[in-house]
Write a structure and sequence with these properties.
Helices cover about 30% and strands about 25% of the residues. By secondary structure, the protein is an alpha+beta fold. The mean pLDDT is about 95. The chain binds flavin-adenine dinucleotide. Flavin-adenine dinucleotide (FAD) binds near residues 10, 219 and 358.
Length: about 375
């Protein structure tokens, strides 16, 4: 009955399913274990009518025209330049640390001198990973590096990853650079914002196609079995393409041990006030147990909300206990080697494709995930 099966209705699964149905004429079954589509991009109104992101704040941002125009078929956008501030002492300073931040932190003469040195060393407009800035031999630049390291980076990173920065892959630490510019935006991509009516309606539109059937509330293991190099669907061998976007270790009952992840506990709070913090995202880089507070109305642009809803994020090590969600893969050699052991189990199944942040044990932004899903569907 089905030509292809997609496991997971997050951005990876939804984009792949839509392309297979629309462009390849396939009859696609999408199996999703949660009660809703959208994966971690899912959003909905809370009891007070405030649009919230249930799995943490998601801002779409991309410089890839083909990705922006593909998703624009399913939504209009509320576009803005996303800005983040960090609470350091009594001050809210722009992050990533940039030349505006430099001038807030140091008095004018010193800030002017440091700015000249940074521009001379790295060039205007450049992004310098903090660990690289710390290697600079100029004592003035090292001083800035030390300030950023201690006040913006160290504690936040330790909370987020449960490790010291030195122990974390440069792939991860490189994500928080120092910007040699006056650009306060968190991302420098051409397009940034959120779907105008929310992410969930975008997914609904994407998955509404005569060639797509979505079954929510079903773990794929109830319907699919992998034995040898054969995929069985409801007990029968299945020769069509299967795109798997779930956790690979769990698919194989963690037989070699669990792949480590960081998870997050989201604590939502509602206030009958116009505004809580006046910013969409405030990072807590030197204090508190949580990493950041997001105030949704500043992110979604919602005007008709009663009061305001915020979320605090508490990171912890994923254990696989019921109800926990694996959010961030922890890239290092040991974990990659374990992942490869699981991947090898699928190598002989030519119609079984691993796609997505869980199945590939890799961090992806929404745009990169969309691109990868588009490419895979085109190849099949
Ligand atoms: C806190 C947080 C904030 C983020 N913020 C941003 C941001 O601002 N901008 C940005 O671009 N990216 C952001 N991301 C990244 C973004 O969430 C990912 O790019 C995106 O979710 C990846 O999509 P996916 O489809 O691979 O995974 P998911 O969205 O996780 O979807 C996978 C789906 O598969 C389902 N599934 C898993 N196993 C099974 C199974 N056995 N059977 C059936 N279904 C199954 C899951 O329930 C899930 O719905 C953020 C990530 C996190 C964790």
């Amino acid at each position: 009955m089905y030509d292809s099966i997609v496991i997971g209705a997050g951005i990876a699964g939804a984009v792949a399913a839509r392309k297979l149905a629309e462009e390849k004429g396939k009859n696609v079954l999408v199996i999703e274990q949660r009660s809703h589509i959208g994966g971690n991009c899912y959003d909905e109104k809370d009891e007070s009518g405030v649009l919230i992101h249930n799995y943490g704040p998601h801002i779409f941002h991309t410089g890839m025209e083909e990705v922006f125009s593909y998703l624009s078929r399913f939504t209009e956008w509320y576009l803005f330049g996303h800005e983040v501030v960090a609470k350091v002492g009594g001050q809210l300073i722009p992050v990533p640390f940039n030349l505006n931040t430099l001038h807030m932190v140091y008095e004018k003469e010193k800030a002017d001198r440091l700015e000249q040195k940074l521009v001379a060393a790295y060039g205007e407009g450049s992004r310098v990973p903090i660990m690289k800035l710390r290697e600079n031999e100029d004592p003035d630049i090292r001083e800035i590096a030390q300030y950023v390291y201690e006040n913006v980076f160290l504690r936040y990173t330790m909370k987020q990853w449960g490790q010291k920065p030195e122990e974390i892959s440069p792939e991860v630490t490189g994500r928080v650079p120092v910007l040699i510019s006056y650009d306060n935006r968190y991302f420098q991509d051409k397009y940034q914002g959120v779907p105008k009516d929310g992410f969930t309606p975008m997914f609904e539109k994407m998955l509404t196609h005569p060639g797509i059937t979505v079954k929510c509330g079903v773990d794929c293991k109830e319907l699919l079995k992998l034995e040898g190099d054969i995929i069985y669907f409801k007990g029968e061998p299945f020769a069509g393409d299967v795109i798997f976007t779930g956790a690979l270790d769990e698919l194989f009952d963690c037989r070699f041990g669990r792949l480590p992840y960081r998870s997050l506990d989201f604590k939502f709070e509602h206030y009958d006030e116009e505004s809580y913090q006046g910013h969409s995202v405030v990072n807590y880089t030197v204090s508190e147990e949580f990493t950041r507070i997001t105030e949704f109305k500043y992110l979604t642009g919602q005007k008709d909300a009663n009061g305001t809803t915020i979320v605090k994020e508490y990171p912890f090590a994923y254990t696989g206990a019921k109800g926990e969600i694996p959010y961030y893969a922890i890239p290092n050699e040991e974990n990659q080697a374990l992942y490869e052991k699981y991947r090898a189990l699928t190598a002989g199944m030519k119609n079984f494709h691993l796609l997505g942040r869980l199945a590939e044990y890799k961090y992806y932004n929404i745009d990169a995930m969309t691109k990868k899903a588009m490419e895979l569907a085109e190849q099949l």
